[in-house]
């Protein structure tokens, strides 16, 4: 008998795999003990596989099977990112079902949370538990301003030779700057098998898709009856923090956490507090 494949619980060491379906090759990583319901992670604007904070991923992977992936046209995945986020939800459904899963838990951040809302509305029986962080509802007030905020912070980051996420995700006070630097350093812990950066074309397509999402008619989120955990910082400049409260009101029975003195990346700034909460919430 062959020896069992070792269980990888460190995201920095999770190998990149691929699966091809419908002419598109999806790049993904998985870690944690396989078996049962996996936790599928949906990432933010401009992000690839390398943009997940290991201080969030690793604690969840200690007890759960975790899957992260690149949407089509992003990172190492082929194809094209679509013009509408509900189409991105369709692509995600294709990916998940190609892996053989009919029931999943979901962890999402920012744009990923927007895609996930469309995913759950379309496939409510496929999701057991849902985590929505740094995100807001379709048609949410101020959602379409993400384009202007992003472009402005890209300029500021370029002028200071910084990573844009230090401006977009964190407050520019002493606490926020320190948290931003620590977060960026954690993203560099993986030193081999790094993903490709997003292309400018895909980035622009995502920005426009978010803008359309923000300007479109609201979805009926009353159909989301799954246990739902919502979290954000109290000063989110990308997706206004008030929209997390909006989600909480519209999703019956949901839990809401708002972290003080933090921005869009509040869950990363407060990872020591948030990760155990997420682990407990996502418990089988």
TrEMBL record:
User: What sequence ranges are listed for the domain AB hydrolase-1?
Assistant: 39-268
Please tell me whether the keyword Hydrolase is annotated for this protein: yes
- Give any GO molecular function from the UniProt entry: hydrolase activity
Q: Which Pfam families match?
A: Abhydrolase_1
Q: Which InterPro entries match?
A: AB_hydrolase, AB_hydrolase_1, AB_hydrolase_fold
Keywords on this record? Answer: Hydrolase
- Mind telling me which residue stretches traverse the membrane in this protein? none
Q: Does the keyword Hydrolase apply?
A: yes
- Record-linked SUPFAM superfamilies: alpha/beta-Hydrolases
Q: Which domain of life is it from?
A: Bacteria
Matches recorded under PANTHER family: AB HYDROLASE-1 DOMAIN-CONTAINING PROTEIN, HYDROLASE, ALPHA/BETA FOLD FAMILY PROTEIN
Question: What protein name applies here?
Answer: Alpha/beta hydrolase
Native organism is Cryobacterium arcticum
């Amino acid at each position: 008998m062959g020896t069992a494949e070792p269980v990888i619980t460190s995201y920095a060491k999770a190998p990149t795999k691929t699966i091809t379906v419908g002419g598109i090759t999806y790049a993904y990583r998985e870690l944690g003990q396989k078996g049962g319901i996996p936790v599928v992670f949906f990432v933010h604007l401009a992000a690839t596989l390398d943009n997940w904070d290991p201080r969030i991923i690793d604690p969840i992977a200690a007890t759960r099977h975790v899957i992260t992936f690149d949407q089509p046209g992003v990172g190492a995945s082929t194809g094209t990112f679509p013009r509408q986020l509900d189409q991105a939800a369709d692509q995600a459904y294709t990916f998940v079902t190609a892996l053989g899963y009919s029931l999943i838990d979901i962890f999402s951040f920012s744009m990923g949370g927007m895609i996930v809302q469309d995913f759950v509305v379309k496939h409510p029986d496929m999701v057991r538990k849902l985590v929505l962080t740094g995100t807001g509802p379709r048609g949410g007030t101020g959602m379409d301003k993400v384009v202007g905020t992003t472009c402005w912070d890209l300029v500021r980051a370029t002028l200071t030779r910084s990573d844009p996420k230090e401006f977009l995700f964190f407050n520019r006070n002493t606490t926020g700057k320190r948290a931003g630097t620590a977060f960026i350093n954690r993203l560099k812990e993986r030193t081999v098998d790094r993903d490709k950066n997003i292309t400018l074309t895909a980035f622009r397509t995502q920005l426009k898709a978010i803008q359309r999402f923000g300007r479109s008619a609201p979805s009926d989120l009353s159909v989301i009856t799954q246990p739902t955990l919502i979290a954000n910082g109290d000063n989110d400049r990308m997706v206004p923090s008030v929209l997390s409260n909006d989600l909480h009101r519209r999703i019956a029975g949901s839990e809401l956490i708002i972290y003080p003195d933090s921005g869009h990346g509040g869950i990363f700034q407060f990872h020591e507090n948030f990760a155990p909460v997420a682990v407990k919430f996502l418990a089988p």
